[in-house]
Specification:
Number of strands: 15
Order of helices and strands: EEEEEEEEEEEEEEE
Structural class: mainly beta
Largest sheet: 6 strands, mixed
Distance between the termini: 49 Å
CATH architecture of one domain: Sandwich
Length: 169
């Protein structure tokens, strides 16, 4: 593959003369996925994000997270556990404690057009801080829109951080 990438053509065949045919061209470029460090107050929820280039958001999806290069966290139906991966690919780490401090996380992605699986180029580290008195609640996650296919469940995330630990409902 050259530094310019590979041109991929996607098209639909005519089944009947009245069926609309669409042709798409996409330049497949090498891409890098990054994770950044996250700071969380003891007892709160930390949110790790896999930063995929915007031109690939429709094609590259997070399939799992790897903690300290050894423990694989995969999507599960259990939304009450320590680790939860949202459909957006975000990793929520609930009730962070001193054992969680200084752990490293990487995300693994899958490119739906090429079938390529890729590990993030960088690892994000979780820093857990002790509260120094009261800390006003701060909303960490905001969503302007949630897209789901008909019949799928929509997950609306609301994560706040503060001390004492804020309750969200």
């Amino acid at each position: 593959m050259s530094s310019l990438g590979l041109l991929l053509l996607l098209f639909d065949f005519y089944v009947k003369p009245t069926v609309k045919c669409e042709l798409y061209a996409m330049l497949l470029q090498p891409y890098i996925v990054h994770i950044y460090d996250v700071y969380a107050i003891l007892g709160n929820t930390a949110v790790m994000k896999c930063h995929v280039p915007t031109f690939l958001l429709d094609y590259v999806h997070v399939t799992s997270w790897i903690r300290d290069a050894a423990f694989v966290i995969q999507t599960t139906a259990d939304k009450e556990g320590k680790y939860v991966i949202l459909p957006s690919g975000e990793l929520h780490i609930r009730e962070v404690n001193p054992k969680d401090a200084m752990t490293n996380f990487r995300c693994q992605t899958h490119h739906t057009l090429t079938g390529e699986t890729r590990l993030s180029a960088s690892a994000g580290r979780l820093f857990v801080t002790e509260p120094q008195g009261n800390v006003s609640p701060r909303i960490l996650t905001t969503q302007t829109a949630v897209h789901v296919r008909q019949g799928e469940a929509a997950i609306l995330s609301c994560v706040a951080q503060g001390y004492p630990v804020p309750n969200t409902t």
